[in-house]
Specification:
The radius of gyration is 20 Å and the shape is globular. Helix content is 46%, strand content 13%. The protein is of the alpha/beta class. The chain has a 7-stranded mixed sheet with strand order 3-2-1-4-5-7-6, with helices on both faces.
Length: 293
Amino acid sequence: MDVYSNGSIIHTGTEPRVQMINSFITLIREANELLQEETDLSPANQLVTNLISQFSLQLRYPYYPEEVQAVLSNEYVRMNQRKLQDKLSEAEFLVELSDSRHISSLEGTVLDIVTRLPNWNIYMALVSQELSTLRQFTPQDSQREKSPIVFVGSGPLPLSPLILHLFGDVEVICVEMDAVAYEVSSTLIEHLGLRDKLTVVLGNGSEFDYSSYSRIFVASLVRNKQAVLEQIRHTSPDSLVAVRTAEGIRQMMYEAIDESKLSQEGWNILGRTRPDQNLVINSTLFLASKAAL
């Protein structure tokens, strides 16, 4: 498949780069077809695990803007991107489910337990960036600095909320709509002895009442982000919101927010984090309602 024949704006460049893009489009096709066919997307399926690992590594490679455009505008990619994202999300959920159940059986301090997770360094890099940016918009010694954080879409392994608590020294309210994730994450939090610091609420983020909270995070895998943001703006218009998104080629794994719509819907982008080439795939936008500024 030739990227030049699929709406790409690449007209110059070395042949190896063109071959690399064609190879990546082939990998996208192989990944999508495998994930659509396989009935078991859990970590027990080594074929799926290996392919997702290869796919994730490819997303961390640096691409030129025109190369990103070549991939995203490819006809097969455009037709199948959402279906691929859905399957990748399902696989990620199952990995978190497995990891959460496993570490719920381990003994030791909180850090002893969670730092054994294979993705610990990735989450630490992501949340450390987010905490640093959050502090830029939270005046020291203000009431907001120690106020609880709501984390929408915490999943079966609430690692981001855990890091926010441990390194941000705040209470975190986890809002999770999946009943299995709710039960498993609640068990984990109880096992870690953090029930007084991390609370899991079963519910949809688009229906949650945010009026008591001024700092809110929205996870990457939350699909109804626009509805969640509207509910936040309606119930807590003065809040600071951190919503995870994806930039460039990383949109193949995670849904990207349409930033032009944010402005139309009454949000200002105050700042953002950037993905770490070697570790982090996600970006995070920090938003405030225009009415609050």
